[in-house]
Design brief:
Strand order of the largest sheet: 1-2
Number of strands: 2
Largest sheet: 2 strands, antiparallel
Number of helices: 19
Radius of gyration: 23 Å
Order of helices and strands: HHEEHHHHHHHHHHHHHHHHH
Strand content: under 5%
Shape: globular
Distance between the termini: 9 Å
Length: about 525
Amino acid sequence: MTPHWLIAPVLVPAILGPLMILWMRHDLLQQRVFGVIGSLLTLIVAIKLNVMAAGGEVIVYRLGNWPAPFGIVLMLDKLAALMLLLTGILAVIVQLYGIGSGWDRKGWHFHSLWMFQLMGINGAFMTGDAFNLFVFFEILLIASYGLMTHGGGPMRLRAGVQYIGYNLAGSALFLAALGTLYAVTGTLNMADMAERVAMMEPQDTALLRTGAVLLMLVFAIKAAIVPLHFWLPSTYANAPGPVAALFAIMSKVGIYAIIRFFTLVFPSDSVVETIATDLLLPAALITLILGQLGVLGTRSLTRLAAFAAIASIGTLVISIARFDVQGLTAGLYYMLHSTLAAAALFLVVDLVAARRGGDFWLRQRPAIRNTGLVSALFFVTAIAVVGLPPLSGFLGKLLIIRATATDPWVAVIWTVILVTSVISLVGFGRAGSILFWKAHELDPEPGNDTDEGERPVRGPIPTKLESDEPIQDVDDSAAPWLAFLAVGGLLAGSVAMTVFAGPLTGYLQHMAEQLTQPELYYDSVLRMQEGAR
């Protein structure tokens, strides 16, 4: 049976995105309906693909029925299926938050850009070709440029320009890395490249190592690993709340690419993998330290969330930098947790700011609406992000500590993880006390440079877009119950990861074993098998 399901995660948003622009430009209700339908369809397909991949087979879809390495292939293994499922869950929940909070009314193409973003992310997880990985990276980045500046405002526009410039430089570096690898191997199909690299003599790999390091730098930019993390704090801090929450999966695209290339393309225990480990581990430790110091020292609520996201990336990379089964298992568990927790944190921050008149600064203000519910969500989210029991962040850090028990750097790794966890706890405790425990009447402070585009304005809720000007004079909480439900859904995911930690880690261990035995991948992609297109 031809596995046409494999093209659906890319095809569905690729069709709906243009249709929204062409036929639904002035109808917000239709955009919402078809946008949610598109996200739900990608989630349903992702569930189906996880069932297909659960048996351990690598399934290949050959576009145009051209055999690899000459044609374009999409591939599905357990890791790709898991990332599709994580993306689908996040997309549905955060899109509902965007509707409930009113963010989708502050610009014209929120839902169409959302579809293009999903198209790029899903394609990056499924492609079996390095050049098409670049193509899907560009698709998701172009969509993210529009989402980043959604709603307008000078601060957001300035951060968007910085984000665009930094990623354009990364894209140029990506092309240089691909050109170098193509010059060495004569192919960009990842399975074919892996076979050719495996046959190279060690003395002939100097240019290969150069290409591999360039490629790792590109993925480090996408993942915001120190010292290539400078774009993330201002970008995430100034992005609309639901957009920043979706961006929580974007940094994982860079992590996914590191895992894919350094377990598939470059042989185990090779010089290239050794270089990757030697570079990634120190960078991950520094990323974790700087991220948590940022949490402790920032005066902005949105930057608190951004620095917490950087710290979670550092914790994650510490584990996957080992490229062994135990490290990958712990890293994959923490990747799931950190994506849900970071997204929940950005949404909670948005809820708090909307109820403080758009004020993101950590300073005393009058008590906000729904103080009890919002403070409870902030408290539970902080527990998840810091890594305190009983939520999944605690289990994730325990898995990472156990996975690094035999590492030569074990003393440094454990010290950094434990000390930075305390720093994070103090930082979130400080923020929570300012936001909720010390709230009282104060005179407005002069000189507040809050972005005008984020100022909540009261007014009727339109269902039709009737002019070419972005709508901003709308109620910022048209369906607050939907916004709260979305945050609760993400936190419920962390609870579920804790309750089902045993079977989940068992499945992730099988996934890690599949990643460290890439021969099945080679055979599936490069040899025509019955049932493969």
